[in-house]
Amino acid sequence: ISICRDLPNIEVITFSVNGISDLEPLHQCQNLSELYLRKNNIASLDELFYLKTLPRLRVLWLAENPCCGPDPHRYRMTVLRNLPSLQKLDNQAVTEEELSQALVDGVEITAPPARRSVENGWSECTASSAAGSTAEPDSELLTCSLDGTNKTQEELDMKLVPRDKYSCFSPQETDCSCKKSNNVLDAILLLMRELDAEGLEIIQQTVARRLQAFQKKELQEE
């Protein structure tokens, strides 16, 4: 998520199910109002230190991360003590009573978390490979990516895309453009969760026009 350092004006970020563990790149996103981080690898609530400087943050979804721990009350109180401007946490509205209770039951975070030598997600895989450790072959990484895409499609009640439709998922074709294409697909499917009926209709119309353009181009080439 290092790209966020160059996006100071971004307002909504959806990074759910992405293996993220480090929130430091977000601390410069001063216009951020909604942040979705469900099902990542955020191990410590100390990462909230980087969100305390975001004056417009009103919606945060942090559930299903290791940092939530075994005590839901303590977790919620700690988040609200450090981010008292939140209006919604984990898809549940924040009440004035909770904010008052958070001053008693929550833990104040005053310092950033201790950093490991490698960062999260793909960076960690890259570091392991560079150190000569055993890493997953590119074809296996791409298969995992496809599995994640299919899970997202299931949540969206969409028809799963057969593996044979992904021509780039053969062991011989693991180039960067292929990875980029499937990463874009994953991002689009995740973002679609945040759209209402009107937004989905716009997406449907846009996709239909794009498909017609591709079909017209194919006919011209034939």
Automatic annotation (TrEMBL):
Keywords: Leucine-rich repeat, Repeat. Coiled coil: none annotated. It comes from the Eukaryota. One of its GO terms (cellular component) is ciliary basal body. Residues 72-90 form the U2A'/phosphoprotein 32 family A C-terminal domain. PROSITE patterns: LRR. It holds the Pfam family LRR_4. GO terms for biological process: cytoskeleton organization. InterPro entries: Leu-rich_rpt (IPR001611), Leu-rich_rpt_4 (IPR025875), LRR_dom_sf (IPR032675), U2A'_phosphoprotein32A_C (IPR003603). SUPFAM superfamilies: L domain-like. PANTHER family: CILIA- AND FLAGELLA-ASSOCIATED PROTEIN 410-RELATED, LEUCINE RICH REPEAT PROTEIN. Found in a complex with CFAP410, NEK1 and SPATA7. Interacts with NEK1. Plays a role in cilia formation and/or maintenance. Plays a role in the regulation of cell morphology and cytoskeletal organization. Involved in DNA damage repair. This is Cilia- and flagella-associated protein 410.
